[in-house]
Amino acid sequence: MSSFRLRPFSHWFLALFLTFTAVGQVAAQDAATVSKEGVTPGATPAAAAPAAAGTAAPAGDAAAIAAGDALFKGNCAQCHGINEVVVGPALAGIDKRRPTPWLISWIKNSSKMVAAGDEYAVKIFNEYQKQQMPSFALSDAEITSILAYVKAEEGKVAAAPTGGGGTAVPAPGDNTETAEGGAGKYMNAVLMVLVVVLIVLVVTLVIIANIMKDVLRGRKDLDGRDLEVLEQKTDWGGILRSKWLTRTAVTLFVLVVLYSSLQSIMAVGLQQGYQPTQPIAFSHKLHAGEHQINCAYCHTSVYKSKSANIPSANICMNCHSQIKTTSPEIKKIYRAIQRQQPIQWVRVHNLPDLAYFNHAQHTQVGGIECQTCHGPIQNMEVVYQYSALTMGWCINCHRETPLNTKNNGYYDNLVKLHDNANAAAPFTVSSNGGTECSKCHY
Fold first, then answer.
1. Are 144 and 77 in contact (CB under 8 A)?
2. Stretch 193-218: mean pLDDT, rounded?
3. Whether the predicted pLDDT of 293 surpasses 70
4. Residues ≥6 apart with Cβ < 8 Å to 292
5. Distance CA 403, CA 411 (A)
6. Do the beta carbons of residue 66 and residue 289 sit within 8 Å?
7. Structural contact between residues 64 and 144, judged by C-beta atoms closer than 8 angstroms
8. DSSP-based three-state secondary structure for 375
9. CB 60 within 8 A of CB 81
10. Which residue from 352, 359, 382 is spatially nearest to 300, judged by alpha carbons?
């Protein structure tokens, strides 16, 4: 009987546990793959529009239509649909209703045409509750590209927003679960099954062990060694009083304290995850995600200023003078305008004064997308600081981001010198001095 052991049961239990653990890891990886948001830095709506539409524009008009796509979404889409009425009239067939010179004048300064008594301008103005359309400082070529885009999109069914524009919206009556929700429920079910199975296994093993002990105690042929093993008990008091346990506990405590202290010191000034409550419940998920309002429509200086401005109440009223006018949150905007007081928005992203940062240099010159630094902003109900915005985070980006030097004579000699010294490495921001102290601190 001395050879009788519980090893087969322990090995079986260990194998089963590892199997369920592997299944759980695979399920977690699948869920992460399915629910991952499609935010791709550098992917612009203009570039994605032809692919999403499923049709290719004529070769000669492709560039104009692509430019018009970006301009339309940045300036027009908030008030106009192409095939449906939003705040203003639907734009399908606009080139047949009015000639291009008239449309150019109207877009540049509609109020001037209404004041001058233009018959069609006055008719539109009165038909849409005398809602004044803003004037746009666009060139004739830009307006023509918008008209080309409108003509290319006439009659098309609007596609559900995806990727950088937000999550897809199911059609009415469609009970298909989103990938993220389905994966989450699947993972919860797997974890619950694992917990139940492990509990059942532990209870079963304890019962088996007790039954086998009772059986062995009734045997008469056990020698002294077997009886000693059978009746041995764990000396918990001795273990708790042992020096090695005390030393191990003290060492772990000291390491935890040191680690926590180091993390606290390193996190001084770090605001990642900061999510303040704003005076008005504004949803980027609704505006930038579901409605696909371009960031530059509200943050007008995002491509041309050192800082991305906070939108004024007047920009909100471009839409909300007609939309959800009775909403309690919108009434807060009305009160701010009536009192001639700015809305006290709470700033989320704030670099220290000792660091110089130019927003336009990154967005306009560098071509960096909003999501690169601000995260999936189109999915945020309440905006929070997505990135660390630390010096190390900025420097790593400068070391890894290649510079677009194509057709820019300023970089020709610099690229040659770089390639001669280290042709294997790409020409990054760091190669152009982007990690020098004086670039950000002076």
1. no
2. 87
3. yes
4. 45, 73, 77, 161, 165, 166
5. 9
6. no
7. yes
8. coil
9. no
10. 359
CA 419, 422, 423, 427 dihedral sign is negative
Max Cα separation, the chain? 117
d(CA 211, CA 197): 21
What is the pTM (predicted TM-score) of this model?
0.51
Q: Which two tokens stand for residue 221?
A: 């042929």
Cα–Cα distance list, 5 to 186, 205, 230, 287 (Å) = 39, 13, 11, 67
In angstroms, the Cα distances linking 3 to 81, 211, 217, 218, 281 are 83, 18, 16, 17, 72
Give the Cα separation of 114 and 135 in Å (integer). 12
C-alpha separations of 214 from 52, 90, 116, 217, 221 in Å: 72, 85, 105, 5, 14
Spell out the residues 6+ positions from residue 167 whose beta carbon is closer than 8 angstroms to its own.
37, 161, 178, 289, 379
Place of tokens 């797997």: 190
Amino acid identity of 214? D
285, HSE (Cβ side, Cα atoms, 13 Å)? 10
- DSSP conformation letters of 68-101: HHHHHHHHTTTT--SSS-SSS---TTHHHHS-HH
Q: Which of 86-95, 301-310, 375-384 has the highest mean pLDDT?
A: 375-384
Classified by CATH at the fold level, domain 45-161 comes out as Cytochrome Bc1 Complex; Chain D, domain 2 (1.10.760)
Which tokens in the block code for residue 300?
């007008």
Q: How confident is the model at residue 362 (pLDDT cuts 50, 70, 90)?
A: very high
Copy the structure tokens of residue 413: 């000699």
Give the closest residue to 20 by CA, choosing from 189, 186, 198, 205: 198
Domain locations in the chain?
45-161, 284-440
| Ordered alpha helix ranges (H), 5-56 | 7-35, 45-53
**Can you state the angle between helices 179-217 and 224-231, rounded to 10 degrees?**
140
Dihedral angle, C-alpha 255, 257, 259, 260, nearest 10 °: 160
Q: In sequence order, what are the beta bridge partners of 428?
A: 402
> 90 is written with which tokens?
């639907």
